[in-house]
Design brief:
Length: 207
Amino acid sequence: MRSGTLETMAPEITLTWPTSPTDELSIHVHRIIHAVTALGGAVGWLEPPSPEDSDAWLLPLLDEVVRGDAALCLASADGRPEALGCWRRDPGPIFAHRAQVSKVMAHPDARGLGMGELIVSSLVGHARTSGIETVRLSARGNNHLAIELYQRLGFQVWGRLPNGIAVGDLRFDDVHLYLQFAWPETVALLGSSPEGPGSSTAPVAAQ
């Protein structure tokens, strides 16, 4: 090491998968959400939430985790939680093979450590091993960095609702992406074919 310079060590990044509520978990989750929202992050709150508001999101999620219908991932730097994200199974038997990844965020003090990519890739792997067949997520149209990250991880854009997100008087596109895992061998892929329960055919045009 050269004289007069300091060698900085990269923090040790670890992942945890909480399954039950604790005061410590609530404090760290609120700290991350509050800081990200205060900088205008598109994570579901227009204003920095109160601890009660963030608990109103966290506690039902943990109930779903216990049922096997969700997962919460925390990334810590040197033991301090700095990023989070979750996946949640879509409700009902018709959609239970799908899951939505959401609330992916990193505390501003931990930006540049690759935590966002680590969280998303870990959630995808967890969902796959939990029997999920299709993972979806959404992004605000102006968040090009996040969309590029998702596409780099294999997600594909399947829809875009123009100006579908409102932030006060501002409107942004609502971009939807998906990642398809291998289908089970027993699954028949009918797509939009007029076959199976509830099928119908379009009327033939009059000649």
